[in-house]
Specification:
The chain has about 500 residues and is of the alpha/beta class. It contains nine helices and 19 strands.
Length: about 500
Amino acid sequence: MKKMAVFALGVLTLSFSVFANAANLPAEKLDSQGGFYEVCYTDAASATATDHFLEKRIDQPAYSALGAKHGYTDPFPLYLIDGVWVDSADCIDEDDLLLGAWQSGSMGGFSSAYMYIPRTGSPVGNGRSLMIVLHGCGQDAYNFKTANLDQVADEYGMVIAAPNAENSPANGCWGFWTDGTSGTSRGRDLGDYKNVIDLVQTLKDNVSLDIDPDQVYIAGLSSGAAFAMTLGCLAPDIFAGMGIDAGPSPGTSSANATGSDVSLEGSPQVVSERCISYAGSYSNYFDTQITSTAYSLDDFLVPQGYGLQNAEAMAIIYGVTQLPGERTIIDNVEITPAIETLWSDSRVSKLVMDDVGHNWSGGKDASGVFISDGSINYGMYLAEYFANNNMRVDREVDNDRDDDGVDDVADNCPYDANADQVDLDGDQYGDVCDLDIDGDGKDNEVDNCPYNANPDQEDTDGDGLGNVCEDQDDTDSDKDGIIDSQDNYPNNYNPKRENLDADE
């Protein structure tokens, strides 16, 4: 174990003190009047610790204000690590890194930022990955501490850094429509664009963090998402992937960024051209970049259409096409699942959620300002998506996710095994995942003749079988809406004609 100095304030002067928990700390020196002590940190102490940092200058009023602000009534220990006061840590490694806990302070070009360092490394590449997360308007980066991002960090060996906008033009927003201050240009050396890049460089330069430069990502919510995507366009050499949650497109004016009655600004083609122009001489790095966009169906602040527009814009840049079918992602049975759509080689992902509103989706038990627990943990989704699809690290790529022997790019149902690739209506969606197999505008579940186009659904005798099927002088023995001559199991109710082994 590493030794640390623990600072204890006098019991008589404060309503809460560290000494009630002194038994948990095998101190080499104890002084009932308070002072500095050399101790070995123990897990027992972490049970009494909170999870945020104190500044280097700590005095009694600041300490009291801290407790009042957060409603602390129980005692908690304080640790002095490299001149920084902290009150929570799971582990201190040989380089005196604070692991398994949030820390805060000035970082890179920002006077206020929060960071979480996991004990583990990334499952791919070399070292830890890094994800910069940018807050939305009216939201402090502090709120990402309760968005379950610590779970993301621990599971995927990912350093999380969440700065507060240094040059906000209004309401704490990231000025995606400006140069980070008051101008209208955008550049790697301007305002908060430069500050974020400096933050990344500062963290990469810290050899103790062991950050893999090929696994640096950027994500954000709302104005932070638009700013993050702009940065992903400005510096594709730095950011191997982007996570754009409920964000307007790069280049959008502030006037068309929010409101249920505003029209989308730009188009996929226009946005792609802007993005490429931002990159300039770095545009060749788009060849190995990936992007996820996300939005919620009950978000009426930022137009939902930006989610698709941003995905399609990046697909144009990457030269990939949308894959047929969708995948339902269930994080927890108590919350709403998300629906994923992918483009070729998983270069672009679009995630549609619900019950999230205009918030960052943190999964079950997430909380905070503009943080929702209504759907999946988007941070966890991003970490998995980045790890599985990063094109800058060496790993095996699974191009046949349903194991049916057909490469995803050519598979008309990449999530559902269908080696025969049967596509009755020729719409490029295989029958096993096509909601309207005969292409007559009626979903299979309500179509009275799902394998024969009959948009009028005419059923003269009212027996539930459309005339177009009965006119063929055939029967439907199992009453599943599929006439026997077209039913792969005519005597077994099987309205979806499921055939997992594709043998008939």
